[in-house]
Design goal:
Shape: globular
Distance between the termini: 12 Å
Radius of gyration: 21 Å
Helix content: 25-40%
Structural class: alpha/beta
Number of strands: 13
Largest sheet: 11 strands, mixed
Order of helices and strands: HHEHEHEEEHEHEEHEHEHHHHEHHHEEH
Number of helices: 16
Length: 485
């Protein structure tokens, strides 16, 4: 039984009231957040009001909806009507949206309990959560290490048991990488399976909202709820097929699990060994391991950074000090005001990516960079399509290393970009992937592996992940923080 089902069982059986449970989590946030820095906004009034509604429903003898009464959190780039949504950037401090993101609208209808908004890299640009204007979230396994990025606050909160689950966004690995660093589960759904309406855009053709949870079962439950069709998002198709929760326990005997040799290149030895040990475990369960070549992967990182930065330079053009957010105090004329507002309001990493994106879209460089990257994107998509003709899922490391120490990412940003090398191909191709803990290094820091599927095959990858979770429960550990159920 996952954490969500356990909580709902406790609530339904009267072992604890929803108000009591919510107060426990709010107290745990108060005690732990000083060190974890996972939350940038805590919403006790909202949480307790929702909890009272759940308790009243239980008193009436009504059955709880999926996720009802479960304390959770949202990354700070998911719009919440009347609740500050800053993207952890100075330029949006004080901004309160006038509408809800579709995913929050769905969760609100299901009476999930919003504890607050969590920390992130500024505008989701980063791999450590340290580009946040609030300072970085830390790793619940060792607070000297980063939680990962950009959804580091969600991962720190869930890994530190100060939220049962959270929603993050994944543009190039921003759900899976922090989940891997924090020893928990992160699901990046197929592009278009979950509505992006109300997600503050970084790179619109790559962004996808997904759940970060303690267990695969919980990830499945959350995904099944939030993967609704949305007419407000022209790219959203919603979940295809039956709920993934119904297929979690399917037999994987005879399933072909592929390992692309390129995914193991440049990966630290302890991470590589943990992933290969997981492959051996799957063989014991009756799956067939198939090694194959995927040479197109070598293009993924440059393609990703060209396309993502190009889209970011366009999407972030709206922050000019006129319509909302931060505005410089001293200026002469409108052009000076916009220039100073953006220079003062954006952090260094965001400015770096805007400049890079503007450069690759400019006259004389568009064909050489942006157009070539789009063509190579087609090559990568075709390579994955061909791979899935021969294998059911692909097994790979989530990140080439375990969580690094705080401060290392900011000293060498280009080196930090390389941490995305295993995750960005999935966003380029629009595929689903789930990161699952598969061991620990000699210092006790978690190692993650990802299971990649063909489009809209979330049920299949979650089934494969669940089977591993059941076979290797020792890789799913609690930390010293937060609420213990």
């Amino acid at each position: 039984m996952g954490y969500i089902e356990k909580i709902q069982s406790m609530l339904q059986n009267g072992e604890i009231s929803c108000v009591e449970l919510t107060e426990k989590y709010l107290k745990a946030i108060e005690e732990a957040n000083g060190e974890l820095n996972a939350y940038v906004t805590v919403t006790p009034e909202v949480a307790l009001e929702q909890a009272k509604q759940v308790d009243e429903k239980i008193k009436r003898g009504e059955k709880l909806l999926p996720l009802e009464g479960v304390p959770m959190t949202l990354k700070d780039n998911i719009s919440t009507n009347g609740i500050e949504t800053t993207c952890c950037s100075k330029i949006l401090k004080g901004y309160k949206p006038i509408y809800d993101a579709k995913v929050w609208e769905i969760l609100k209808k299901n009476n999930a309990i919003l504890l607050g908004k969590t920390n992130m890299d500024e505008f989701a640009m980063g791999s450590s959560c340290e580009t946040s204007c609030f300072g970085g979230a830390t790793n619940p396994f060792n607070t000297d290490h980063v939680a990962g990025g950009s959804s580091g606050g969600v991962a720190s909160a869930v890994g530190g048991d100060i939220a049962v689950f959270g929603l993050g966004s994944d543009t190039g690995g921003s759900i899976r990488q922090p989940a891997s660093f924090c020893g928990i589960v992160g699901l990046k759904p197929t592009y278009g399976a979950v509505s992006r309406y109300g997600l503050v855009a970084y790179a619109s053709s790559l962004d996808q909202i997904g759940p970060i949870t303690k267990t695969v079962e919980d990830a499945s439950l959350v995904y099944d709820v939030i993967s609704e069709y949305d007419e407000n998002d022209s790219t959203c198709e919603g979940r295809q097929g039956e709920p993934t929760y119904d297929t979690l326990n399917n037999d994987i005997k005879g399933m072909k699990i592929g390992i692309a040799r390129e995914y193991l290149e440049g990966v630290r030895e302890d991470v590589k060994e943990a992933v290969l040990e997981a492959a051996r475990k799957y063989e014991e369960m009756g799956a067939e391991i198939v090694y194959f070549d995927l040479p197109a992967l070598k293009f993924a990182l440059p393609v990703y950074y060209i396309l993502a930065c190009a889209e970011a330079s366009s999407n972030l053009g709206r922050y000019d000090g006129i319509r909302y957010g931060y505005k410089t105090e001293h200026y002469e004329g409108i052009h000076d005001m916009i220039c100073k507002t953006r220079s003062e309001g954006f952090g260094e990493e965001v400015k770096r990516r805007i400049l890079l994106g503007t450069y690759v879209l400019s006259a004389g460089y568009y064909d050489a960079y942006y157009k070539k990257a789009q063509n190579l994107r087609g090559t990568i998509i075709k390579a994955f399509d061909d791979a899935f003709k021969n294998v059911d899922v692909i097994l790979a490391p989530t990140v080439p290393m375990t969580a690094f120490k705080s401060g290392e990412a900011t000293s060498d940003p280009v080196e930090t970009y390389l941490t995305d090398i295993c995750t960005v191909p999935i966003n380029i191709a629009g595929l689903p992937s789930v990161s699952v803990p598969c061991g620990f290094n000699k210092n006790g820091m978690p190692i993650g592996m990802q299971i990649i599927g063909d489009k809209f095959k979330e049920g299949k990858i979650l089934n494969v992940a669940y089977k591993y979770e059941q076979a290797c429960p020792e890789n799913f550990k609690d930390t010293k923080w937060g609420v213990k159920l």
